[in-house]
Amino acid sequence: MRCTADGTGDGVLTTRSFAAGETVMVGFLVGALKENDSHATQVGPDRWARHGGLGPKVNHSCDPNCGVRLNDEQAFDLVARQQIHAGQELTFDYAMRNFTIDHFPAVCLCGAPRCRGSVTGWKDLTAAQKAGYGDLVAPYLLTMDNEIRLAHSGTASTG
Ligand SMILES: [Zn+2]
């Protein structure tokens, strides 16, 4: 059995190579959800949905070869962050979509040298990690960061 990022052998492998910046997989939603669960995708500050197709099978990595980009259907496309060769496993950082991670096992099995040790959310990334992902993250995460920053600067100016 091939070892994949989740340690189970279950994952999504490419059948051809992709160049950096290329859309690797077009995402689509199969239904809105009332709340977060272990297979939900966060699609807004308080909104979750289920992705169809192979999207839910793509594993997390703390050093992923893909990022995410919200498309016109309000689903996430996977976009290559680097050259990806045929037969490689596709991964993205679940923190690119979720502000917090509430439904994953404590230990991350991605095996990346820079593994964070557990699957954590956007709020747990360092500024450098966030910057490294550029715009290949869910846009509402950047909005939420801005709101937090504004709230903090508001507090500081009153003191
Ligand atoms: Zn990891």
Query: How many strands, which pairing sense, and closed or not: the largest β-sheet?
Result: 3 strands, antiparallel
Unreliable stretches, pLDDT < 50, 5 or more residues?
Answer: none
Number of domains: 1
Which range does the strand content fall in? Answer: 15-25%
Number of helices: 2
Number of strands: 8
CATH architecture: Beta Complex
Spatially, the strands of the biggest sheet line up as 1-7-6
Task: Give the radius of gyration.
Answer: 16 Å
Helix-strand layout with pairing:
Layout: E1 23-25, E2 29-33, E3 41-44, E4 47-51, E5 59-60, E6 66-70, E7 76-80, E8 91-92, H1 127-133, H2 139-158
The chain binds zinc ion (ZN).
Report on this model:
This protein is 17% helix and 19% strand. The longest helix is centred in the last third of the chain and has 20 residues, at 139-158. A hairpin with a 2-residue loop joins β3 (41-44) and β4. The protein has helices spanning 127-133, 139-158, and strands at 23-25, 29-33, 41-44, 47-51, 59-60, 66-70, 76-80, 91-92. It has a single domain, classed as Beta-clip-like (Beta Complex). The radius of gyration is 16 Å and the shape is globular. The chain has a three-stranded antiparallel sheet with strand order 1-7-6, with no helix packed on it. It has a three-stranded antiparallel sheet with strand order 2-4-3, with no helix packed on it. The relative contact order is 0.19. The chain is built from two helices and eight strands. The protein has 159 residues and is of the alpha+beta class. Bound molecules: zinc ion (ZN).
